Fold these 4 entries.
Entry 1:
Amino acid sequence: MLGTGTVGAAFVARYQRLQSRGLALPKVAWLANSRSVQACGSGLDAALEQAIAAPRRELLLQGWAEAEALHEGDIVVDATASELVADWHPEWLVRGVSVVTANKLGHGSLLARSQAITEAQCATGARYGDSATVGAGLPLLGSLRALVAGGDRIHAVEGVLSGSLGWLFGRFDGTCPFSDCVREAAAAGYTEPDPRVDLSGEDVRRKLLILARAAGLALEPAQVRVESLLPAALAAAAPGEVDGLLHLLDAPLAARLQQARDTGGKLRFVGRFDAHGATVGLRTLPADHPLCGGSGADNRVAVSSDRYPVQPLVIQGPGAGAEVTAAALLDDVLRISAA
Ligand SMILES: NC(=O)c1ccc[n+]([C@@H]2O[C@H](COP(=O)([O-])OP(=O)(O)OC[C@H]3O[C@@H](n4cnc5c(N)ncnc54)[C@H](OP(=O)(O)O)[C@@H]3O)[C@@H](O)[C@H]2O)c1
């Protein structure tokens, strides 16, 4: 188990809840963060506590990479956002170790890494559980892969893939400046600590790449055209200056809201791919469009394919947050260990 942050801790809490209800779960051998590796022999709680209390280090730890405990048939759970850890995904699979991940950098970043993951899986039969990476376990990736396995060609996928941006554009009605909505979302824990991670569209680019690759499209990150919401000065600001510059969002977004209203539409931050390419950005949608439904931090995705050529398959539900993400990770662990 890698990562003892928000998702890692929620995973441990859920694991213990299910265990206390008598569910048979595979043993957690060790857990690690960037600072320490802890064996779980004397209990998960104690190991989690010690890992969280470990001192900061100059160099990121990689002791987990060659951890003795890793054997063919084992499962590594990646609850980090680390590039270093994602680089290990294909390597573990080649060794017959299955990987379960909330880290989007496996299939959501470099095409070469994504292809190496698929090839390693085919070569060894080790499994890759990534349902937590898009929609936090909503039946999204599984449905897309099932359509492809059933012979359907995917015509288009479009969705509100970011819980925080979904919440923001559901909330932003012009009664207060957009920057106030961003602060409100941050205070409620809907955004990343630095809201620019959400507002730049980068998180949605990764999720869209994961969906596109599941649909069989070999896209490079640069082939997704991303329209960032960040004005240049805000994008370039030091972390300490961000709050003071959020007001730069207000005038352009008030203008976009007015334009949308003039046409009877609604603003939604949408990722989309089809035969013509892949885009991420703010769009004005008709008020009765499937992506305008839902509420709060819901994700909503519409899939058109051979069998759904006119009315898309729409999947909607809570797609963000540590609890549902941890549940998706544990679901994948149980699916793999039961196989
Ligand atoms: N939070 C959510 O609601 C949510 C929802 C969906 C998906 N996700 C995804 O889930 C992942 C984890 O998110 P989070 O919110 O839990 O992040 P977080 O609180 O920042 O925790 C990240 C954890 O990863 C560890 N880590 C970083 N580099 C590492 C390395 N090289 N080796 C081992 N451990 C390393 C960190 O170690 P230290 O403790 O030593 O810093 C930390 O424990 C991310 O990929 C995120 O995008 C999160």
Note: The longest strand covers residues 308-318.
Entry 2:
Amino acid sequence: MVSSLPIFGADVTTNSSALPDAAQERARWSASGAAWDRWSDPMADMADRLNLPLLDACGVMPGERVLDLASGAGEPALSAAKRVGPAGHVIGIDLVPEMLAGAIRRAADFSGKKPDFAIGDMTSLPFPDEHFDRVTCRFGIMFVPDIQSCMAETLRVLNRHGKAAFMVWGPLSDNTLFSELDAAVSDIIGPDPKHSLNPLFRFEEPGSLGSLMTAAGFENVTEESLRPTARVPLDKPFWRASLDMLFAPRLASARDGSRERIEDAVRSHFSGVAVEGVCPLHLHARIIAGEAG
Ligand SMILES: C[S@@+](CC[C@H](N)C(=O)[O-])C[C@H]1O[C@@H](n2cnc3c(N)ncnc32)[C@H](O)[C@@H]1O
């Protein structure tokens, strides 16, 4: 389901227990890069189900110059490169080289005009003023402590008709796979003292990121909710990608056998909700977009 509403700078607060810590985020993503690279190709079709609505919300068109913030293993930069075609250009940046390794590997095999990738912090962009038509960011903005600097920098590098679009997660309880994995990991290896999942849901409140964009100077800020339900076969270990990508740093220090016990618990939970061998997986993401004006 997709709904769209305008944001008028409402007085909305973010989830304050979800504020990220810069050093912790850098360590988390450095430790996660290998898993994101490993899963990036098998998950590419699934990733496009979120990439394409994000590119649409941002208005990405053939021939445009696009900056993708927090590209990780290349989402949605590679999809954006397909859309802008040979007359356009995509540059993706990410804070840590370990996450960008997958994007660089995948770009080498890209048929068509290749996107470029560089290490960079989205609060201090290494690009001239008004250099891009579009700025995209999929599941990255929530990990940045200094949102104001990121917004100011995004506005600075966008041209006068430019647009930015950020994808964030809705609440944990609306995202079946994450909530079940979190429950199983916490039951088996104990609660996470760093609460490392919390920043994912920093902008779970409708309007919370949109009001910050409006305050920063974006115009015509809008928000869409995406709430697809995937129907996945129970006989495939569909949870493994998320377990590796989001829980790798926690699992690294877990006792031998913990991983198997977590997988057994997850399999058993999903067996209980499957109908004729198919599990419904609910997902809730939001896209918040704004124009540079
Ligand atoms: C959940 S991953 C998303 C990766 C990719 N966009 C995707 O959707 O698959 C979050 C990414 O944000 C990056 N990141 C975190 N803080 C950042 C910052 N200040 N500047 C640039 N990238 C950052 C991390 O290194 C990580 O690659």
Note: The chain has one domain: 2-291.
Entry 3:
Amino acid sequence: MNRTKPPEFKTQFAEDVFCGLTSYPKKLSSKFFYDEKGDQLFQQIMGLPEYYLTGKEYQILVRHREEIGEAFASLEGFDLIELGAGDGKKTKVLLRHFEEKNYDFKYLPVDISQNVLEQLSQSLETEIPGIEVEPQQGTYAQVLTKLSEYKNRKKIILFLGSNIGNLSQQEAINFLSGIKASMNSKDLFFMGVDQKKHPQVILDAYNDTSGITAAFNKNLLTRINRELEANFDLEAFMHWPLYDPETGIAKSYLVSKKEQVVQINDLNLEVHFQAWETIHTEISQKYDDTSISWLAEEAGLQIVKNWTDKEKCFKNYLFQTL
Ligand SMILES: C[S@@+](CC[C@H](N)C(=O)[O-])C[C@H]1O[C@@H](n2cnc3c(N)ncnc32)[C@H](O)[C@@H]1O
């Protein structure tokens, strides 16, 4: 790696790429997966036979929507705030149900990807036109600072798709503590969490045979090439997922297949890779009831109820403040 004067960063992406590729070991945040192409690839991943998470959570929401609705509903109505909403495919199960029940609510999806929010808003306009929707582009960190402003009526915060797994355990505690700090006594937090299970099933979910997950991971390099004028050769890197059943951590890497130097012109940076050096790109922490209870306790939250699928692959937990 060869640096001259540190550049002035034009975007958060530029700053994070600079910091991640000049640290050792190298890393890039998974939140940058989601540009237009990344959104499209993730929607393909959700349809893959190996990626069981979406189907299992969908099943839970369909089967238990009545009971979930009863837990959410309140006389004064509620604000339904979803963090990292994505395409909202599963949330629509609840939204349709709430509309049929004539619940008084507003849906506020939040996502780092403006592209996915626009797609979600458009699809809601045609599929469930009766509901009030107020999308907001931003990161979890940005939204956490504003959440407590929603205090005129009950708020329900949704965090589906095991998005919590993309945070390290300490980040997850900080995140949940932030959620708790924004909650009033009647507010609820509803979170979907992928559970520990046969290690091969988990590993396969991040290593599909059609190569879509590999393309999703490598798309980060394409994004750096395009947005920061770099020359990553995608063929010179390979996607490498791991799963450790002891810690419950699935990790994805991009591994350099040879010694190489990559130029990132916008950052005035040359990045040197040894042969087989890694870039850590994603963590997908798996949990069980014990570790979720521990997280909740650390954050000052209490589990009210949980719902699961037949094989107990995935769970949706409802929390209130302690
Ligand atoms: C794994 S997808 C899950 C989407 C949806 N919750 C689901 O269950 O299908 C993660 C979503 O969170 C968004 N996201 C990732 N990191 C984020 C961050 N730090 N702040 C806000 N949104 C983020 C992504 O753009 C993406 O739409």
Note: DSSP finds ten helices and 15 strands in the chain.
Entry 4:
Amino acid sequence: MLDAPSHDLDRATVQKAYGGWAPIYDALCGPVFLIGRKAAVKAARQVGGKVLEIGVGTGLSFPDYDETTEVTGIDITEPMLARARRKLETGRYPHIRDIRIMDAHNLEFEDASFNVVVAQFVITLVADPERVLDEAARVLRPGGEIVLMSHLYSEQGIGAAIERWVAQRTRAIGLRPEFPFSRLVRWAETRSDIELAERRDLGPLYSLVRFRKLG
Ligand SMILES: C[S@@+](CC[C@H](N)C(=O)[O-])C[C@H]1O[C@@H](n2cnc3c(N)ncnc32)[C@H](O)[C@@H]1O
């Protein structure tokens, strides 16, 4: 398995990029991410209980949660979260309990606060993915799951070449198509309390990855 060169994005770049995307985000990413988003929320609902969604963005996932869950969402980009707030104000999403500005690198929650931590189209964008995963594992209860939905690096062939080419040009707009799965696997291997539960590719665009925290 080949690793792409590391191009972790920095916080300022991501905030600027998603501040710019916010007004058109739902129109653009709503349809593209639909299948992935539904699969991630379904996986979260199968565990149920308290859910933390990191990088919740404009709240596109809100309609997919139900009474089996109590959701808290966090994000670092105020214009994205402002849109999520407006959705909440409609009163249509009683299962979404709280949304807050917060950096996933420094979660302001007690250890073992959540049954599930969901990160949809986020883990490849953060400045320090391993730290964010450590934080997710910290706030997770034993038996709980981390559910990731992201585009993962194709690793080989023309797909990988295109992703490397695109990656050099799309950093400033907050896209990162060359994040290797092996990096997630290696993170799990550093932890005695985490096991990889599943990787499921949903077409060429994105993959579901689930980690379980051992009890
Ligand atoms: C591609 S959007 C995905 C939004 C939403 N999860 C969805 O599926 O529509 C990435 C989001 O992650 C947020 N984000 C990036 N880095 C973050 C961090 N360190 N902490 C919290 N949120 C972050 C961005 O602000 C942005 O809203």
Note: The pocket of S-adenosylmethionine is lined by residues 14, 18, 29, 33, 37, 54-57, 60, 74-77, 80, 103-105, 120-122, 125-126 (CB under 6 Å).
